[in-house]
Amino acid sequence: MIPEDRYELATYVDMSGAPRAGMVVDGRVTDIAGALADSGKKALADCGTTVLEVLEQWPQMHAELRNIAKESRARPALFKSVALSEARLLAPILYPGVIFCAGANYRDHVAEMSKALGLPDEPDPHELDLKPWHFIKPAAACIRATGDRIRLPAYSKKVDWEAEIAVVIGRACRNVKVERALDYVAGLSIVNDLSARDHVHRAGVPIASPFHYDWVSQKAFEGALPFGPWICPLDQIEDLGNLRIQLWVNEELMQDSSSSNLIFSMAEQVAHLSTRVTLQPGDVIATGTPAGCGMARGRFLRPGDRVSIRVQHVGTLINEFTE
Questions:
Q1: What distance, in Å, lies between the first and last C-alpha atoms of the chain?
Q2: For residue range 211-222, what is the model confidence (pLDDT) as tens digits?
Q3: Which H or E run includes 45?
Q4: Does domain 99-322 have CATH number 3.30.70.1060?
């Protein structure tokens, strides 16, 4: 049974073509600023036109949006809405401040890649007192919405898929403890951390050189981070430590795992990153990908491929690829 106050936080395009913050309730999209104004919350309505503005007021906004969701179910005609099938969704946050992406953070993926590369099994990083490892992707260049057609980069013939659960920050945090880290999270979404596997290394630079890796060509090309379809508030997600995550290329299931295989938990990642920088509302953490990537199979994305990613209790992200 769906809780009466459940909703998803989305960015949609209104009739004028402008991006607006919306909430999805039972397959319909309601404008958040409009619903807040209709509820007599003028001050909140004035800072609720974008999802980033909503996240900057997250604790209070979330409480109000739960009430609006409840009222919408009790009286469906109370707030003006449009069918989800008729709405155009954009990425949940158009321009996050920072997008952090975890590397090598699923046990099954690390084992798979070690086998594919002929390397010995790696020990649990916790046993070596290692910390989570992240890189950064630029938002404007990389983010694409569910339903977008994404052009494969001309310089790569080995673009790989990586289904990931994304953590969205809802309160500024610095030096937080693991036990409190999730208190600063607004919710979860989905990303596809696309990778150009044939541009991991810089040609002509020795492998032992600290300048050997080409992070931009591998990870930061145009359209390299499909993101969506929305943000599901954290307190509406059951069993955070055992969320099923699946990816299909066309009709073929490629990735099928669970957040129980995370090496560093979502809370550990938030806590660690907060020791390096102050995390801000709207920052996004892609928490790692499980086994089943194309690299281990020798199969990479081709023009015409359709990729679907489903995360339990969160939603489904779908994109097609072109040349």
A1: 43
A2: 888 999 999 999
A3: helix 42-45
A4: no
